[in-house]
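Box 3.1 A note on notation
Throughout this textbook, protein chains are presented in two layers. The first layer is the amino acid sequence; the second is a token string describing backbone geometry. Keep the layers aligned when reading.
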Amino acid sequence: MTKFEILLVEDEENLHDALKLNLEMEGYSVSSSYDGAHALKQIQSAHFDLIILDIMLPSLDGFAITETVRLHNIETPILILSAKNSSANRVQGLKLGADDYLTKPFNLEELLLRVTKLIQKTNTVKPSSIDEFSFNGHTLNFKLLEAINNKGEKISLTKKESMLLQLLIENKNTVVTRERILQSVWGYQVYPTTRTIDNFILSFRKYFEQDPKTPLHFISIRGLGYKFQD
């Protein structure tokens, strides 16, 4: 069974240790950070299913972390923990992109319930509505893991190629972020390099583009992700 990964960012050591222990007892894998800048590096280099984030932190506060994470199109749910209990602080946190906000002191059972809800919401896999798809004379069959290109040639697809094609096509004309691709297709806790996805996109261009060097269908959006357009 896959363990969900939580990053716990809290500089109050006793509270941090108590939360970590209780989350691990619930079956989560917990990474720790006590410093804002360090936490941001962790978020940008690894995949987490949830970030539990204090506001008052050394070097970089929780609001700044939340804003930076969302500006980088990282969609990991964020649960803010804060002694700041005014409605203005709560609104600020949610406006910057936090998914939930819990004020200290809090009830442990309520915290664990909110953690469960946020992780379930994000990791609920929607069944694909697409078994076959055609564009520009190419036909893709996701059930059979194969494609027929517009020259009539049969192409065998790997499972990951099929998953990535489905993800891009289901979100056609929309940029799919690198992070979302890695979560959906690879599910790695530590990300592989961007080149991993680039190699898949290069294969798709070779299979389906008239001129792979000037692609019309499989587009890389620098610094953001990838887009399919038919």
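The two ends are 38 Å apart (CA to CA). The mean pLDDT is 89.
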